[in-house]
Amino acid sequence: MTGLSTLLIVVGLFLLGGVISFVKQKMPKSLIVLLSIGAAMCLVAGILRLEVWN
């Protein structure tokens, strides 16, 4: 299952980069909040699914 964990972490980091980009472009706050929640959920799910934590 490390492939799924890696995928979740990569998607989370990609979304985090989108959050940083949206903040620099002064996009609406609601969009930034939703994207940051999605990034946090992907990162946490990826980290929790790693076999190191099991």
Name the beta content range. under 5%
Total beta strands: 0
Intertermini distance:
12 Å
General form = elongated
Order of helices and strands: HH
Oligomer: single chain
Rounded Rg: 13 Å
* Global mean pLDDT: 83
Share of helix among residues?
over 70%
Number of domains: 1
Number of distinct helices: 2
Low-confidence stretches: none
Largest sheet: none
Based on helices, strands and strand pairing, what is the structural class? Answer: mainly alpha
Keywords:
81% helix; 54 residues; mainly alpha; elongated; 2 helices
Overview of the molecule:
- By secondary structure, this protein is mainly α.
- The chain has one domain (2-49).
- The chain is 81% helix and 0% strand.
- The chain contains 2 helices and no strands.
- The protein has helices at residues 2-24, 29-49.
- The longest helix has 23 residues, at 2-24.
- It is elongated.
- The chain starts with a helix and ends in a 5-residue tail after the last helix.
Summarize this structure briefly.
The chain has 54 residues and is mainly alpha-helical.
Topology readout:
Elements: H1 2-24, H2 29-49
